[in-house]
Amino acid sequence: MMQQSLVLVGKRKLEWERKALNPIEEDELLIQTIAGAISIGAELPQYNESDVTDLDPKYPRETGYESYGKVIAAGKHVLDIEVGDFVLAFYGHKDYGVVKAEKVVKVPETIDYTYALLNTLSCDSAKGVMKLGPNKWDHVLVAGAGTMGLLTLHFLKEYINVEKVDVLETNKARGKRAKTFGANNVYISEDEVPREHYKYGFECSSSKNAFHAILKALNHNGEVCVLSDGNKDLFFLNEDFYKKELKIVGSSDGWDYRQHSQWFFENIKKSEYVNTIFESHIHSNELIDYFAYLSETSESPIKVLVTYQV
User: N or C: which end of the chain has fewer CB within 10 A?
Assistant: First the structure.
C-alpha cells in the first residue's frame, strides 16, 4: 500500500511525499481518507514561518491533524472497530493513515463528515470551558469568532446553557456568524467591550489586543482561559491582571475525544449551523496551490474542508 503525505520542506514549500506503508500491527487500523481540514490559524503560520512560538522550525515536517475516513483493515486485536466503519483520526494531510485503534473516534454513518470533523476542536474548546466552570448565570466574554471561538461559544450555549455570552470579533462577517451560534452581543472593537463586566473570558483570537481587552473586561478575581495557539502575537500581562488579581489558565488538546463525541454527535442534530464554520471547500490535489493562495491574499476563511478521491 502506497501513501501520499503532504510535507512542509521549507518556508512556503510543500511537497507530496510518496512512500510504502508497513503492514499494520495487531492494535492498528488502516484508514482511507475521505475528508480532512485546514485549520488556518494553526497551519498558515507554520507555512509562512511566522509562528512566534516556533522561531527555529525544523524540516521536513508533517502537515494537518484532522482526518475522517473509512477503515479498510484492522489488526486482529482490535475488537471495537471493524472494516467499513467510519472514524476520526489525527494523521493530517494524507490519503491513507495507519493509527492505533485506541486513538480514533468512531463516527455513526448518519453523521456527515462536515460535522464529524469538528468534534476534535469542539472537545479542545470544551476542556477549556470546563477548566473555568462557568454556570448559566455568569457573564462570559469570548474573544475571536474563528473555529475555536465559535465552538467555545457553541459549547457554552448548548452544554453549559450560559445565558449571557458576548463575543469580541473585529471581522464583521465573523461577528454575524457568531450571532447564529447564539452570541448575545458582538463587539467589533476592543473599545466597545464594557469594563469590569464579566466573570470569565476565553481568548480564541491569538491577538494581544483582544487578550488585553478581556483582562480589562473581567471583574475582580475574574478568570480567563487561553484557547488560541498564541502563534501570531506574544501575550504579556497588563495592569488589570495585577490590580484585579485575575487568574489565567491555558488549555490544549481535548478532555476525551470519544466521550465528547457522544454529546457532540447528538447535539448537532439540532445545531445544523455548526458546519458553516467550513467557509471553503477544496480537493486534496489543490492543497499546495491553496496554501500559496492563502499566504498571498487577505482572504481568511474560518476553516477549509478538504475532500479526497475515494
Answer: C
Helical spans, DSSP H, in 133-286 = 147-158, 172-180, 208-217, 239-243, 257-267
* Domains annotated on the chain, with CATH: 2-119+256-307 (3.90.180.10), 121-250 (3.40.50.720)
pLDDT in tens, 255-271: 999 999 999 999 999 99
Statement: the pTM of the whole predicted model exceeds 0.85 = yes
Residue with cell 495592569: 239
Angle between helices 172-180 and 147-158 in degrees, nearest 10: 20
8 Å CB contact between 203 and 215: no
Q: How far is CA 91 from CA 35, 69, 119, 152, 247, in A?
A: 12, 11, 15, 24, 35
**Angle CA(30)–CA(113)–CA(206) in degrees, nearest 5?**
100
Kindly report the backbone phi and psi dihedral angles of residue 223, in degrees, each rounded to the nearest multiple of 5, phi listed first. Answer: -130, 140
C-beta of residue 103 within 8 angstroms of C-beta of residue 256:
no
Helix (H) or strand (E) holding 228: none
Least confident of 158-167, 231-240, 253-262: 231-240
The letter for the amino acid at 261 is S
Residue 66: which of 282, 310, 281, 303 has the closest Cα? 303
User: Can you tell me whether residue 148 is helix, strand or coil?
Assistant: helix
Closest to 265 measured CA to CA, from 130, 92, 67, 112:
112
pLDDT in tens, 60-102: 999 999 999 999 999 999 999 999 999 999 999 999 999 999 9
Of 238, 160, 237, the closest CA to residue 200 belongs to 160
